[in-house]
Amino acid sequence: MEITFLGTSSGVPTRSRNVSSVAIRLPQRAEVWLFDCGEGTQHQLLRSDLKSSQIRRIFVTHMHGDHIFGLMGLIASCGLAGNAQPIDIYGPPALKDYLKACEKYSYTRIFHRVKVHPIAPGMVYEDDEFSVSCDRLTHAVPAHGYRIAEKDRPGRFNVEKAKALNIPSGPLYGQLKQGKTVKLEDGRTLRGTEFCSPPEMGRKVAYCTDTVFCDAAVNLAQDADVLIHESTFAHQDSNLAFERKHSTSTMAAQVALLAQVKQLIMTHFSPRYAPGNPIQIRDLLAEAQAIFPNTRLAKDFLTYEIPRRRDTASTTQVIAGKS
Ligand SMILES: [Zn+2]
Ligand SMILES: [Zn+2]
Question: Which of 82-91, 144-153, 216-225, 230-239 has the weakest average pLDDT?
Fold first, then answer.
C-alpha cells in the first residue's frame, strides 16, 4: 500500500500545493483509490507516477469545493481516454445530484461508467482483502472520515518442511495450515504453528478531513499504521479552528496520540502560513511533534509506502517526495 498526496492545501491552491486529494495505490491489484478530488487533481495525477486509468474507486469526505471540484474533469477525461474500467464513487447523498447536474448541463455522459454510492456511518465497501468504513466528523457541513483496513493474512505454510518430514499431502496440510494439532497414523503429533510463519496483520489507514477535534476521528484512527489528519491552523489560531470547524496541529496530534497510531501525516494547510507570515507550516510540525513525535508534514507528491506489519520497525520510509 502506497499513499501519494496530490493536494495538501486547504480551500484554495497555492503555487506549491494543490487542493485536497490523496491516492492510495494497491500494487497487488494494479488499482488506485482516490480520497477527495479537488480541482486540478487530474493535472496532479499527470505530474505523478500514478496512472489515471488505474483509478477504480473514489471516496469523497464532503461537498466543499476544495474536495470535489476536480471530480467531473477527471471522470470526463478518463472517459475520453477510453478507459473501460468502471469507477465507483462513495460520498454524501448530495454527490449524486451534483454529478447528475454536471452531466446534464455540460452534455458529458458519465453515468454509464460511474456508480455513485451514498455513504452513512459504518461499512462503505468490503471485498476479500480490504474494507473501508466511515464515520461522521465535526465540520461546518456534513463530513465523513474514512478508515481503510487491509484484512489479516494467514502465515505461509512451509510445504518443504512438511515434505521433509514425510507428512502425506492432502487434508492434513489443510489442518496444519489452520494451526491445528494433528496426530498421524504412525503416532507422531504435529503442531500446525510449527509449519506456518506468523500471520501478517493487515495495514490500516485513517483519513480524517475536514474536522475540528472529534472522538469519531480517534475511533477511525485506532491503532492505524498511518493517520492522515487535517491541520488547517496553527495552535495559536485555535479560535479560527473552532469557529470554522477545522483542526489545529495540536488537535491532529492529540487524535494521533489517543488513537495510538504509528505515524501521523498532517495535511490541508491554510495558505496563510506562506513564507512571510510569522507562523509557517514547519512551526505546525514542531507544535504537533511536541505532543506526538512521529508526525510529518504532507506535501504535494509525497509518496509514503506503508510497510507490512511484520517488518514495521525496519522499513518505514518515504520513497519519494518531489517538491
Ligand atoms: Zn477542505
Ligand atoms: Zn470543508
Answer: 82-91
CA 9 to chain centre: 17
Residue 66 is among the residues annotated as catalytic for this protein: yes
Nearest to 67 by CA among 169, 165, 185, 146: 146
The length of the chain in residues reads 323
Ligand 1 centroid to residue 181 C-alpha, Å: 54
Q: For the segment 279-323, what is each residue's pLDDT rounded down to a tens digit?
A: 999 999 999 999 999 999 999 999 999 988 764 443 344 555 544
Q: Which amino acid is at 162?
A: A
Question: 495559536: which residue's cell?
Answer: 236
Give residue 210 CA to ligand 2 midpoint distance, Å. 5
Quickly count: other Cβ atoms within 10 Å of residue 187's Cβ: 6
Strand ranges for the chain from DSSP E: 2-7, 21-26, 31-35, 55-59, 87-91, 114-118, 122-126, 130-136, 144-150, 181-183, 189-191, 204-208, 226-230, 263-267, 295-297, 302-305, 317-321
Is there a contact between 249 and 235 (Cβ–Cβ < 8 Å)?
yes
The domain defined by 2-153+199-318 folds into: Metallo-beta-lactamase; Chain A (3.60.15)
Choosing from 36, 66, 210, 225, which is the catalytic residue? 66
CB 265 within 8 A of CB 225: no
Looking at the CA of 69, name the nearest ligand: 1
User: Does the pLDDT at position 3 exceed 70?
Assistant: yes
Mean pLDDT, rounded, of the chain: 93
How many angstroms separate the alpha carbon of residue 28 from the centre of ligand 1? Answer: 31
Domains of the chain: which residue ranges? 2-153+199-318, 159-195
Q: What pLDDT was estimated at residue 319?
A: 52
